[in-house]
Amino acid sequence: MNQHAQVAKDYESYRLELQEKRDRVLETLGVRCETLAGMDHVAEDDRAQISHDEFISLQRNSRDYLQLRLVDEALSRLDRGAFGACQACGHAIPAKRLRALPWARYCLACQDSAAGEMDRN
Q1: What is the dihedral of CA 58, 62, 63, 68, to 10 degrees?
Q2: What residue numbers bound the domain in which 96 lies?
Q3: Rounded CA gap, 32 and 62, in Å?
Q4: How far apart are CA 97 and CA 31, in angstroms?
Q5: Exposed (0-12), middle (13-18) or buried (19+): which is 120, by Cβ within 10 Å?
Q6: What is the distance between the alpha carbons of residues 111 and 104, in angstroms, rounded to a whole number?
Q7: How many whole angstroms separate alpha carbon 49 and alpha carbon 82?
Q8: Which residue has the higher pLDDT, 63 or 33?
Q9: Which one of 16, 30, 52, 106 is separated from 76 by 20 to 30 angstroms, measured CA to CA?
Q10: Who contacts 7 (Cβ-Cβ below 8 Å, separation ≥6)?
Q11: What's the first-to-final CA gap in the chain, in angstroms?
Q12: Number of domains the chain is built from
């Protein structure tokens, strides 16, 4: 069975895994936002710690929003029939990589290339 046929066979399991990841990220973002909203009523002495905690929380939110975007893009590729194809070279992303990172956009070679390019900049 070729790679594209394997992706089609596992379509529903990828969709379910992506939906579950999406739900977990949204839940985490919701909890974090509720926690930040509750920090308005603290003593002045605690402001430095609160500022640090807010900074860390905003960093995590940024990471989670990126994760959410990657998951949503993967779901969109599933709907369009483009899931499992590297967005750089067009070759099939290995099933092992998709099982580990179903939101992967690139095959390993192209991912390494993109990471190397980012390191140089």
Answers
A1: 130
A2: 3-120
A3: 12
A4: 30
A5: exposed
A6: 9
A7: 46
A8: 63
A9: 30
A10: 14, 83, 84, 92, 95, 98
A11: 40
A12: 1
Coarse DSSP helix, strand, coil percentages of the chain, rounded to the nearest 5 percent: 75, 0, 20
Q: What is the pLDDT of residues 91-114, one digit of tens each?
A: 999 999 999 999 999 999 999 988
pLDDT in tens, 37-46: 555 555 556 6
Per-residue tokens: 37: 């909203």
Question: What is the reported pTM?
Answer: 0.74
**Cβ-based neighbour number of residue 74 at 10 Å:** 25
Alpha-carbon distance of 51 to 55, in angstroms, equals 6
| Amino acid, res. 21 | K
| CATH number of 31's domain | 1.20.120.910
Q: How far apart, in whole angstroms, are the C-alpha atoms of residue 67 and residue 74? A: 11
Asked if 31 contacts 13 with a C-beta cutoff of 8 angstroms, the reply is no
